[in-house]
Amino acid sequence: MKALFLALVASSAFAQYDGPAVQSCRDYAIKDLKRAGANVKEAVIEADRNLFISRYTRKVGSQFVSSVLSGNGSIVYPEAAAAELSFICLLADDKHPVFFAWLPRQDTRSLAQCTRDESLRGKSRQCLEMQQQIAESELGQLYAERFQEANARGEAAVARYRKSNDEWRQYRDAECDRQGATSEERRIACIVDLTRRRAWDMQ
Predict the structure, then answer these.
(1) How far is CA 44 from the centre of its chain?
(2) Most buried residue among 121, 147, 179, 193 by CB atoms closer than 10 A?
(3) What values do phi and psi take at 93, rounded to 5?
(4) What is the DSSP pairing of strand 52-60 with strand 83-93?
(5) What is the pLDDT of residues 135-157, one digit of tens each?
(6) End-to-end CA distance of the chain
């Protein structure tokens, strides 16, 4: 079903949008999360270049859909890291959503994730260090899987694989230096973001 919704978005003509559908979809998302029992503080829809509405004017199953709103957002939890995601929202009209779904997002920003809730803004380092542990653990699992694949191809493949990993870590550290992080928190955030991107690329 999600693949169908993504196809609808990809195949339609987009236009930047800042009308009532944004608030309607946001309210619908919050209600949907709370119905599922989530302890949610806020749902955020980013007013950035990724926020688009596609005029659809067809039926999805038996439900008439006039438009599809998509973009980036986050689910903010009290005293916890936010979930940075993308979303898709189907609307009967601009004030009446009929479906909302959160989707995986590749370009998540750990600093935003650890500062969405104001209670974390004075102690973002602890949150960022936790995100770094999670990102490193996930990447480590992928490394182990890819190592087994390289090992099956022989010693030369293993050597190339290790060289690639070593060079990527050198790149990551150099890139975070290049960005000129002005605080330890920002440097950790840079490391987390690039580590997540590496894991995404290796999947």
Answers:
(1) 12
(2) 193
(3) -150, 180
(4) unpaired
(5) 999 999 999 999 999 999 999 99
(6) 22
Distance CA 199, CA 203 (A): 6
Residue 76 three-state SS = strand
Query: CA 160 to CA 140: how far, in whole Å?
Result: 17
Question: What phi and psi, each to the nearest 5 degrees, are found at residue 12?
Answer: -100, 165
| Of 81, 87, 84, residue with least CA distance to 99 | 87
| Cα gap 80→72, rounded to integer Å | 19
Q: Rounded CA gap, 77 and 49, in Å?
A: 25
**Vertex 49: Cα angle to 197 and 101 (nearest 5):** 70
**Crossing angle, helix 124-153 and helix 184-202, to 10 degrees?**
30
Whether 48 and 73 have beta carbons less than 8 Å apart is answered as no
Q: Contact 24/91 with Cβ under 8 angstroms?
A: yes
Domain residue ranges in the chain:
2-105, 118-202
- Domain 118-202 sits in CATH at 1.20.1270
Token couple for 134: 């999670």
Length of the chain: 203
Tens digit of pLDDT for each residue in 62-118? 999 999 999 999 999 998 999 999 999 999 999 999 999 999 988 889 999 999 998
Helix then strand count (H, E) for the chain reads: 6, 6
